[in-house]
Amino acid sequence: MDVRGVTLKVGLSATTTEPALTGGHLDGIGIYSRALLRELPRAGVAVDARSFGPAARLSVGRPMPRPFPLATLRDLVLPGSLPGSFARDHLDVDLFHATDYRIVRIDRPIVATLHDALPISHPEWCNPRLRGVKNWLQAKAARKADHVIAHTRYTIAELVQCFGVDERRISVVPCGVDEEWLDAPDPALVAATLAEHGLRPGYFLTVGTLQPRKNIGALLQAYLGLPASVRSLRQLVIVGAAGARSNELVDQIKAAQQRGENVVWLSRLTSSEALRHVYAGAGVFVFPSLYEGFGIPVVEAFASGVPVVASNATSVPEVTGGAAIDVDPLSVGAIGAAMLELARDEALRRRCIAAGRARAVQLTWRETARKTAAVYESVLKG
Known about the structure:
The chain contains 16 helices and 13 strands.
């Protein structure tokens, strides 16, 4: 309910959830957007899903009034002070929430979720063809939004530094995990998924697009440095599509496989249910990322009852909340030592599993939606 005692109607970005536009693969922004589409109605918000893209290809949201390129060109050419529809599109909502960086002028308050400032803070990790566009889109979003949502306190500092956003216009709303993940999946279904992909329970697992900031190369080195007896019993399972600047890492993974190492790369695991099963079969989850605006896979591992080795960099310790073994992601030795410790010390495993599940209970998508709805109400109150 909103401040006027009636149901709040919000336009919500759905472009990153459209199967025809994403190829069926959801990145972190897509997972976040899909979760809000599902959970906001339970928080008393009527959602009008809107997407940029040809109407014939949309299955989740209705089209925005203008295609994004045309709306962006109009924004550049026409001053925002012009009256009526010359400068601003009309949407029959109380507020519009842009969950990605595609923001155009509309005649309603705008909330924007800015997930990180990576293209500006670490351009060396980004696709050089898209870096300039992403920088411009994020800066544009920061200027046009009436209020900004960040996922961690760490991200606030970056948004202030990189985009000059007034900290008073930023609210922290963490990401989460589906509540059903807190219950163990059907063991028979888990076993079937593992058998389909040639996995043996108890493996080391990591999840994330293969790109430099995910630091999967260091994890591979750490795994290959473990005792042969451990590697023979526990596979290293890497779940994630090849991203920008991942050619060298892909070559390293394939070279390890050709040498007979127990390394499995699942590059096309697009089913959420299959991913949940893969988490359930893991013995240790490892997340050595050099940079994160949040890090959803960590929470998914917590909810799945898997002990976690996590990076101590950027926002990750804020997300783990002391429930993981934190390591220096630049130290291959530290990553390997923590992996070995969790593989061998059953008492430590139990403590980490209990702490992780307690942390996951605090970080559900339902709670994300509740806090997001509270942000909407505060914006409309002025």
